[in-house]
Amino acid sequence: MRIDLIPENAAGTPRRVVRSVFLLGIAVCCLSAQQPAQLFTVTPEVRAALDRVSGESMRGHLSFIASDALEGRNTPSRGLDIASEYIAAQFRRAGLEPAGDNGYFQTANFVLADTPMDGFELSLKTGIETVNIAKDQVSFNIDRALKLTSSLLKVDYADLAAVAALKPEQVAGKAIIVEIPDSRRAQGPRRLEMYMARQEFVSKMTAMNAALVLTIDRLSARGTGPVQGRLIDPEDRRERVTRPPSTPVITVHDPRAIKLFDEAKLGPTTTELSLKVPAPVEHPVPLRNVIGVLRGSDAVLKDTCVLLTAHYDHIGMRPELEGDNIFNGANDNGSGTVTVIELASALASLKQRPKRSIVFMTFFGEERGLLGARYYGRHPVFPIGKTVANINLEHLGRTDSSEGPQLANASITGFDYSDVGTIMESAGKLTGIKVYKHEQNSDSFFDRSDNQALADKGVPAHTLCTAFVFPDYHGAGDHWDKIDYANMEKVDRMIALSLVMIADSTTAPKWNEANPRTARYVKAWRSQHEK
Q1: What's the rounded Cα separation, in Å, for the pair 42 and 58?
Q2: How far apart are CA 7 and CA 29, in angstroms?
Q3: pLDDT tens string 435-461
Q4: Is 279:157 a contact under the CB 8 Å cutoff?
Q5: C-alpha to C-alpha distance for 491 and 433, rounded to whole angstroms
Q6: How far is CA 146 from the centre of its chain?
């Protein structure tokens, strides 16, 4: 689909000079090689709806959503539940139809697992000396019982060539002792780089059947113990049985273990490790997506829809930190959440609704692995085959990107994967926002947010953001008063117009089959439409 402005003096069309979206009667022609041209006009009513989008209104919403009172909206948490109630109240206020199994809530029954530490044991024995590691000097996230005795293999994590040269016969069955820097202490893009490097290292150890990765931490004298409240999707657990588990990782904060590490030579050591981790104890926990719908006006097309989505969770608190230990998540992703709220209110003011329905939805658990979006993908409220597009929102409020100021622009992941990027680019031209393909991040970030869950089902789904990475990303300083509300207001008007353009067109966005990266999504789309 290509979107062009109707030329001046086109046959049967009064002359219009397109200089600003504030001019009325702007026309957009949506062209497709397979479909006849469809005409879209920005009417005075649509213009008025766009004008209702208010940065000050979003400031009010976000100052609550990202307040300390909600304690970082971890999944699950009291703060997350309060946020979901607040979002539902705003959908109710806007007059959206509830679309969940319980009003505006789609409830997913997950399992929460905690590891009891009464039976935890970890010891390191070298010769006649044995170091018993205390329970408060370890940190780990292990989702199963472990009982292990193994010799230690010391690896230089920073020596990439040496790590790459490791052979399976050296690693298999061994506990690897290593020093991996904590990415959570880094700032800006370095945080993500360090996290990805750690994941790559653990994946390599898993592929070579390492029994354990034991990493030392010189900066914290005490650990956090096991990650409690690990979420398990009962439906996903059945699939996990067929997948080999990842190599477990334990961080040790004991100075004696650090001394042992420093004194050991690289390669096989004479130290024997003994480990016992008790089995997790589980209990059920309900989690909720929040869903409202603005019903379309066309007798047939109202049964099809476009989704506007954002995740409303963040990463909660770190009680072990001194000072500010609440990760408020104002930009990630309070900004996306309040945009969904604001656009629901603005577009609900339309007396003449678009032809297709517009679904406003906020997901739980994105930070835990796209949990809410993947649950919706398995249990769609609106048929996947009739869902024509998904615009997902992330990081809309901060303009102080790690790449420099980002004003009056926005980038979409997988820009040329489908027609959605071109539609949003055209909406941007009408509203003074440059919508562009980020050459480095557009494709690489495609699978890093909730749009991926919908794309896997065949829906042309993309994530829009203003800054891919920004100061305080996943940090405690991501506060609501750092948001550029005036800029977010402008970007959000472009998003609102994009939604109306897609929802009011008889031509649905399509995947770009000429792009080889879309092959799996095209296949999924076809499977939905051949049913």
Answers
A1: 24
A2: 10
A3: 999 999 999 999 999 999 999 999 999
A4: no
A5: 6
A6: 31
Of the candidates 490, 523, 138, the one whose C-alpha atom is nearest the C-alpha of residue 339 is 490
* Domain assignments of the chain as residue spans, ordered by start: 56-110+285-529, 116-279
Q: How far apart are the first and last CA of the chain?
A: 24
**Residue 7 has what pLDDT?**
27
Mean pLDDT of the chain: 90
- CATH topology for the 56-110+285-529 domain: Aminopeptidase (3.40.630)
Q: Are 244 and 209 in contact (CB under 8 A)?
A: no
DSSP, collapsed to helix, strand or coil, labels residue 456 as coil
pLDDT score recorded for residue 239: 53
CA pair distance 25, 21, nearest whole angstrom: 9
- Domain 116-279, CATH class in plain words: alpha beta
How far CA 220 is from CA of 67, 244, 250, in Å, comes to: 28, 32, 14
Give the Cα separation of 506 and 304 in Å (integer).
10
Using pLDDT thresholds of 50, 70 and 90, give the confidence band for residue 16: very low
Neighbours of 268 (CB within 10 A): 13
The answer to whether residues 424 and 464 touch, using CB atoms and an 8 Å cutoff, is: yes
Helix (H, G, I), strand (E, B) or coil at 168: helix
Condensed to tens digits (0 to 9), the pLDDT of residues 254-264 reads 999 999 999 99
CB 242 within 8 A of CB 206: no
Burial level of 152, CB count in 10 A (0-12/13-18/19+)?
A: buried
Which 3 state secondary structure label does DSSP give 12? coil
Measured distance CA(377)–CA(358) in Å, rounded: 17
Alpha-carbon separation of residue 328 from 17, 64, 231, 335, 469 (angstroms): 45, 10, 21, 11, 16
**In this model, does residue 210 exceed pLDDT 50?**
yes
Work out whether strand 387-393 and strand 305-311 pair parallel, antiparallel, or are unpaired. Answer: parallel
Give the model's confidence band at 227: pLDDT under 50 very low, under 70 low, under 90 confident, else very high.
confident
3-state secondary structure string across 202-226: HHHHHHCCCCEEEEECCCCCCCCEE
The two three-digit tokens of residue 46, written as one number: 């649509």
Express each pLDDT in 506-519 by its tens digit: 999 999 999 999 99
pTM over 0.85: no
pLDDT, residue 228, reads: 77
Q: Please list, residue by residue across 374-409, b when 16 or more beta carbons sit within 10 angstroms of its beta carbon and e when fewer do.
A: bbbbeebbbebbbbbbbbbbbbbbbbbbeeeebeeb
Instruction: Give the CA distances from residue 159 to residues 155, 179, 225, 229, in Å, rounded to whole numbers and listed in that order.
Output: 9, 11, 29, 35
Give the residue among 333, 385, 382 at the shortest CA–CA distance from 359: 382
